[in-house]
Amino acid sequence: MTGDAARRHARERIPRGCGVSRAGGDGHTIGAMRALEAIDRWEARHAAAGVVGSDGVVARRGDEGHRFRLASVTKPATALAALVALEEGVINLDEPAGPPGATVRHLLAHASGLPLNEGAPLAPPGRRRIYSNAGFEALASFVAERAEMPFEDYLRGAVLEPLGTQATLEGSPAWGLVGSLADVLALAAELLAPRVVATETLAEATEVAFPDLAGVLPGFGRFEPNDWGLGFELRDGKQPHWTGEHNSPRTFGHFGAAGTFLWVDPEAGVACVCLTDREFGDWAREAWPALSDAVLAEARAAK
User: Fold this and answer.
1) Per-10-residue mean pLDDT for the chain, 303 residues long?
2) Residue 240: inside a domain, yes or no?
3) How far apart are CA 166 and CA 205, in angstroms?
4) Domain range holding 93?
5) Are 47 and 56 in contact (CB under 8 A)?
6) Model pTM greater than 0.85?
7) Quick one: how far is CA 29 from the chain centroid?
8) What is the CATH number of the domain that holds 157?
9) Nearest CA-CA partner of 135 in 123, 118, 160
10) How many domains, in total, are found in the chain?
C-alpha cells in the first residue's frame, strides 16, 4: 500500500476536520485539572501533561509548544501503523517476520526472542517476554518492505497526518518520534476512541498476546506473567507499576526512558499523557503513579 492509500484509509475512518479536534481543537473549553499541577514540581526543564475524555481534551498544562523526545512512547504509534497495514491487507499478524519461527504478532508482542537492541535471539519465539527495540525495528522493516516505501513515510500517511499531528520520526521506529503535547494527546484520543482503525482491531491489540509469558518490565522488574498486547503494555495486576493503583486492569499504554508516558483506561474513559525532558528514574516511579491516581480521582469526581 502506498502512502496515498494509507491516507485514504484514514480519511475513510475519520470525518473531515476531525483529526486535530480530538486533541482539543473542536471548540470545547479546555479546563484546568489540579492533578496536573504536580508536573511543576518534577524538576524537569520542560514538562507538559494533558488528559483526554470522551469529549476530547479535558485539561492540559505545561510547555505545550515544546517538542519532546517521546522515546518508547513511539511504539504505540508504530503499532497503530502496523494495525492500519493489517486492515489494508499489507501484512498478516501470523505470517513469518523477524527471526526464524517468529511472526508479525510475535514482534508486536515482544515475544520474538530478540534482545533489547541488536543481536541474536535470546529465546525461541513465544517462550519469553523480552522487551525489544530490535523487534519493533524488524516490524517496521517488514511493513516498509511490504508497503514498498520507507516506514517513516508509511507512518506519516497512516497515522501522524490523519491524526493532525506535527510529530516526526527522527530515528528508530521503536523510540524516535519527536512531538508536542498536542501531538501525543491526538494519539491518546485515537487509542481511547479509535477511528484510524476499527474498534475491533484495537480491542484485539489490547488483549493479552501469548498469555502467561514471564519477563521483565524495564524499570520495574520481573513479572510472571508480564502481559503485553500488540504493541501496548497492559496494566493487568502488575505491582509496582508506572500507572496508578486505581487504574483498572484494562489500562494500556507505554512509557519512555526520556521521561514520557501515555496511558488509556477504557473503564474510566480517560487517557493521560505526560511529557518531560527528565530521564526516567526513581523520581518517575514515585511521581507517575501518584499523578495517575489524582487524575482518575478528579475525572471521576467531575462525572
Assistant:
1) 53 45 39 92 97 95 96 98 98 98 98 97 98 98 98 98 98 98 98 98 98 98 98 97 98 98 98 98 98 97 86
2) yes
3) 25
4) 3-10+23-302
5) no
6) yes
7) 26
8) 3.40.710.10
9) 118
10) 1
